[in-house]
Amino acid sequence: MIRYEQVPDPEPGPGQVLVQVAATSMNPSETALRAGMLRTVLPLTLPYRLGWDVSGTVVAVGDGVTSWSDGDRVIGRLDAGGAAASLVAAPAGSLAAAPASIPLPHAAAIPVAGLAAWQAVDGRVRAGQRVLVNGAGGGVGGFAVQLAKRAGATVIATASPRSAEAVAALGADEVVDHTAGPLPGGMDVVINLAPVSAEAAGGLAALVRPGGTAVSIATPIPGHEHFVARNDPGQLARLVALVDAGELAVHIAGTVPLAEMAETHRLSGAGLLRGKTILVPS
């Protein structure tokens, strides 16, 4: 059960900064966390404060912090959670400067999804390749399509009909309705971002040409790499630079008050959210 309640304001400890939260964002993985599906990789103690993505403004710094000052605009992935609040004490080393070219609340859509997409694409996708992004309608997929296209690949993306237009606008060369029939084969790289059946995962493996590669952050693809995205503030800073250079768009599907987080989780668990929804403190 998600409760929305008043708690004492946190104080920054050594190596931490206190962030006035502009927004956090909804990640399907947080729904999986609540369902107990991540207990082997992310054990936690209840009560647990949700919110892995954060954007906001530094309002105080703890002992030993020299990298940030009051008034700095920051974003970050908080592996311990807690960003679903008005204030959060965050490790100073987990943060990057927020992009200046988009509204600060919108920047909360970047850390978790952007880092997962970066790590799926970087080092695997090269110019001239044919790349399939399976599950491109979500937050990670939107970034993955753009990053693969920026690398010079021909990008084929799967998305539902209601997401197809948005995915095409992000640069996909072809958008395929994953429910309408077989997917194209002969892929140099397959990036799976969707929880699918074991049978469907085997089908994705068959789409990879000999010598090609596949990677999944969701259901494992037989014979190929499965990974959990890691926190990397350096990579996050590079994503921010691309946003500010106009080379990476941050698409926000919706904005809701933080007080409505329980309903947002319900909609996510029912598969009724698309893209990135941000939650802003009331």
UniProtKB/TrEMBL annotation:
SUPFAM superfamilies found in the cross-reference section: GroES-like, NAD(P)-binding Rossmann-fold domains
The Enoyl reductase (ER) domain, residue ranges: 1-279
GO molecular function, one term: L-threonine 3-dehydrogenase activity
Enzyme Commission identifier(s): 1.1.1.103
Domain of life: Bacteria
Matching PROSITE patterns: QOR_ZETA_CRYSTAL
This protein's record includes keyword Ribosomal protein: no
Keywords: Oxidoreductase
CDD domains, per the entry: MDR_like_2 (cd05289)
InterPro entries referenced in this protein's UniProt entry, alphabetically: ADH-like_N, ER, GroES-like_sf, NAD(P)-bd_dom_sf, Quin_OxRdtase/zeta-crystal_CS, YIM1/Zinc_Alcohol_DH_Fams
Database matches in PANTHER family: ALCOHOL DEHYDROGENASE RELATED (PTHR11695), RETICULON-4-INTERACTING PROTEIN 1, MITOCHONDRIAL (PTHR11695:SF294)
Protein name: L-threonine 3-dehydrogenase
Native source organism of the sequence: Actinomadura macrotermitis
Organism taxonomic ancestry: Bacteria, Bacillati, Actinomycetota, Actinomycetes, Streptosporangiales
Gene name for this UniProt entry: tdh_4
